[in-house]
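For this section, I looked closely at a protein sequence along with its fold in token form, which I now present.
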Amino acid sequence: MSRFTDKSVLVTGAGTGLGRAIALAFAAEGARVVTAGRTAATLEETVALVRAAGGTAEAVTADVTDSDQVRALVERAVALFGGLDIAVNNAGIFRGTVPTADITEEDWAAVLHTNVTGVWLAMKHQIAHMRTSGGGAIVNVSSNLGTHQRIPNAAAYLTSKAAVTTLTRAAALDHIGEGIRINAVSPGASAGPMSLRAGESVADRAERVKTQNPLGRIAEAEEIAAAVLYLASPAAGAVVGTDLVVDSGSSA
């Protein structure tokens, strides 16, 4: 498939995990991808994987919580590939895994600043370009935790991701008239190290998950990436302000 041939795509949090899978998926379908994040070494690893598969990618370091850095990131993406057609805001953190009253003010602020303000700043500067260049598509990575499902000892993360879902829908309404389609994907646990419990093997996780969700397994990162690509594609041309849950039925 080549749905994104010659499209310029920016992916934040692209150095590892889901962000890397999204970057690889876009590049495999012809996109020119800017991988962004705070750690140059992991971004370069993603770029090397894209290039090894015959794709086109460049790495740009940036912290999504810093408005000046995000503005410079978008400007650099435009300069590298001549525009910005699609942006995927995937950068996020998970901290403060204690009861609500015991979350430190530092952890609360860090999670909200990265997961919510970081998405808002990214959209702010992405939209500033897209509204002058004929529009585009933005996909924010939220979570099945928050709006769709709750777990104990994760109030900061739950709050931040519920906010991302609402922010996505609000921005979608504000900017669809400018030709900018904004949606979200809400993944559940995916097949990476973050879904492994302490001391748990991949085989142990597979056995545990058999009884934890209706599908009987967690999603592959590539399956979540496929949902992101759908929302960014022309096939989703009438999809505006949705939050597509990909969590093996956990929140059904």
Observations:
- The chain has a mean pLDDT of 96.
- The two ends are 31 Å apart (CA to CA).
- Residues 105-130 form the longest helix (26 residues).
